[in-house]
What does this fold into?
Amino acid sequence: MRLPFIPREEKFFELFVEDAQNVLTAARLLVEFFGSYDQRERIASQLLDLERKGDGISHDIGHKLENTFVTPFDREDIHQLISRLDDILDFIEEVADTCILFKIDAPTQAASAQAEIIVQQCEELVRALEKLKGFKNVSPHWIEVHRLENEGDRVGRRAIADLFTNGTDAIHIIQWKDVYTLLEDTIDACEDAANVIERIVVKHA
It folds into this structure.
């Protein structure tokens, strides 16, 4: 007796894109956070809302995973993908929250540059996930995320070096080192998400 064909649940792909778009919105808000620093409390509150929205999307994906017999790719990779997207969102919110908790008076050019890199990486992640359903023409996007990560490393290292070279206030140095490190962690989290996408595509090539 032949078993009937069981189609893969394709709704996952829409949810992945929705999740990544929410992360991209947060990344763009982080740029606005540094660019409109007098509005930082309001923007930080919006980032917290986006983090909660991301948690909701992740919950929806997890619930669908529990109730789907045939998934579009390995369940472990689905878990990894949503987890890495959550990490990016968590780091973005933490950057803003840390700036407020530390009572940092004004942003730096380096922090704004790092935030711009995060936006570019998130744009590439959205584009990659929009193509993931076909598992084709995705590689240019993860390659660009990796290139941007290298650029972000250079910006971060230079910013921290400048702190210790030109800084005179120890508290200021410690605070900004923490903020730059969080921004680097966010950039690295974007690369981690790209690595998961790459692994998924390679498995289905």
Observations:
- Residues 198 and 205 are 10 Å apart (CA to CA).
- Residues 170-204 form the longest helix (35 residues).
- Confidence is low (pLDDT under 50) at residues 1-7.
- Helices lie at 11-35, 40-66, 75-101, 109-131, 139-166, 170-204.
